[in-house]
Amino acid sequence: MDTSETEKEIIHPTSQSKYIKQAKNATSKANAEKQALNAIREKIELERVKRINRQKKKLVAKKGQEHLQNQAVVDHRKVQIETM
C-alpha cells in the first residue's frame, strides 16, 4: 500500500456497500431500460411485418382482379370470334 494514501482516500466498508448498492441499482435500471428498448424494437418490427403483409395481400388482390378483368376481355373476344 502506498504510504502517501490518507485514511480519507480509503473507502470505509459501510461506504463501499453503499457504492455497491448504487452500482447494482444502476445496473438494474440499465437492464430494465435495455429490456424496454428491446420490447419497443420488437413491437416496431411486428408492425412493419404486419404492414408488409397487408401490402402483399392488397397487391395479390389487385393482381387477381386484373387477371379476372383480362380473362373477361379474352372470354368476350372468344365469344365475338365464335359468333362471326
Walk me through the structure.
By secondary structure, the chain is an all-alpha fold. It contains 1 helix and no strands. The chain is rod-shaped. Residues 1-20 are annotated as: Disordered. Residues 1-11 have a biased composition (Basic and acidic residues). Residues 20-49 form a coiled coil. Keywords: Coiled coil.
What is the topological layout?
Blueprint lengths: L12 H71 L1
Keywords:
single chain; 84 residues; mainly alpha; 1 helix; 85% helix
Write a brief structural summary:
This protein has 84 residues and is mainly alpha-helical. It has one helix at residues 13-83.
**Strands, count:** 0
Q: Averaged pLDDT, please?
A: 81
The shape, in one word, is rod-shaped
Residue windows where pLDDT falls under 50 for at least 5 positions: none
Q: What is the terminal-to-terminal distance?
A: 111 Å
Largest β-sheet summary: none
